[in-house]
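Shipment paperwork, digital attachment
Item: protein structure file
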Amino acid sequence: MTLLFLFHKIKVKFKELVGIFLKENLTNLILYLIKAEEVTNSKVLSSYLNVSTRTIRNYIQEINSFYSSKIIDSTKNGYIIADKDKARYLLNQTIEKNERMLPQTEDERIDFILSKFLKSILEINLFDLSEELAISYATLKKTIKNTNYFLEEFNLYLSSKESELILIGTEQNKRALMRYYLYNNSTENILSIKYLENFFGRNTIQTILAFFEQINEKFGLQMNDFSLRNVLLHLAIIASRNKEGEYLSDSEIVEFGLDDPVITVIKLEKFIYEFFLEKFDIDLATSELHQISILIQTNSNELNANKLIDNGILNEIEDILNQLKNYYYFPINYKSFVIPFSIHLKGLYKRIEIKKFNKNPLLKDIKISSPILYDIALFIADIINKKLSTKIPEDEIGYIALHLGNAINKDKINMEKVNVVLILPDYLNYSENIFESLKEDFASDLNIIAVVQDSSKLNMFDNIQLIISISKIDIKAFDNIRNIIISPFYSEKDQNQIRETIIRIRKNTERRFMKINLERFLNEELFFLNIDYKDKYDIIYAMSKKMREFRYVTDTFNEEVITREKMSSTAFREIAIPHSIVMNAPKTMVSICINPYGIDWGNQRVKLVLLISVSKKDNTVFRKMYENLVDTLSETNNLEQVIYSKRFSEFKESILSLWN
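Attachment content:
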């Protein structure tokens, strides 16, 4: 028995004895990958956890060390959960161990107190709570004070009366807190059925799911998965709160009805009332009945889409697409966008009317992984805001981004393909067989321009990035073209070689693009260093004023940037990239503001601000630059490389070196 094998046996035995307990970052990494449900590259993960990509690799190795088979798979494009059962087991082991431990931090104590009230405890004895938390009465008083700071957002507060602690506020606000708590403590992208069953009880959740099936059958209404989980959570809360005698008041409900004749609404509400009476023994008050009716109406789509979509909404979407084309030149797959988005838009209009919006658990991921898609969703939201004189919240804007992502995904893949020419002998269908194999293996990666028999014909083709051949060829006459030599039998080794080369070509293309364009758009006159500003709007004003002096932007630029900023913060971790929604500047330029001690940016502090003006002709360039800047500068090591620059030349050299 080798020492290495013996060490492994001892390590496994030790884990069996003490139980598995993951460090916080390991837990967060597993949670992120479970939510993603798709391959995620190391840059996204490093940005999310605020560590280096090398640290991510170490985390993956550590997680995989818990079992002989892998929990997380490494692929050419990043990481994905290989075994969800084992991943969740690791999390549950950690959670169970956490539950056996006393809350240690102030945040943990606040969470502990709130969880008690959310489980329908009406009042808590202060001395019992002090003993349960193993803290002094004075410390508990401080914790209650801090809890009330948190509760201000929900218009709730804790009141102590004769040694009893009570949660004060409207039933509507208590339910809002309950939804927030459940969303933020879930380990899933969308609330899992099992998670809700654990909190509310299996019988309650399964009964409500049966309710949805009957709504579909009787009224022709269906919900997508996000909407279903959203309404499921609301109905579970209503059922649990009603059982405890907690009801909404009539003043907390607004009147609202389906577009169909009122008779349909009457039948729907009659069915809801009878179902809750029979299954939950709950005699729904009128206020609660209207609440459930509104939730179903604003989150359901009729099965017959043609009946649902009227010409008015179709015309609005045509107008939105035309404006997108004019400002962004963005490729939208019309068929895959119009009908789903029409249905979504109609539901959104209903939610705007009654000011009741859906929670979007993917919002943070969307903003970080696809900032330009989110920006275009903001553009669409701005059109709707102006039309209806409203303000669509960020969660709903995230759903618009999801619709856009679905409609442009295939086009985006095509845009990223590498142009290749095959030089293959035409013998016994050899070239045809290799061609078909490459098409099948690299459908999303390679754009095969042509198949030729020798290199003399290469001059006929433009924009070649890669040549695949079975023998070495002279490519000295061609700039920036790679040549891969494959075996006559096209093996797995050949596949791996092609895959690695595609990655290198894309990285080199990205590097050249960023260096060329940053060189174009940087100007020493737009460099601000260690200047103290009152707030982010003060910074934007100072930077845009300087850009106006050089006539890079128009007089309305400052106002346009602030309008965009008020819709949704442009800060990503410790950087901010403010810009206008409308790309109509006379010239594309980047203004820089550095302060390594941090600049107040609303709810966070940033160390680097890049204010970007974009001309119409450069909007495609901006899209690529924006995502690259967010992706690269969100990594702590890269940001630190540039924020300690003492002068413009040093900054320029530092930021360009990130793409060496």
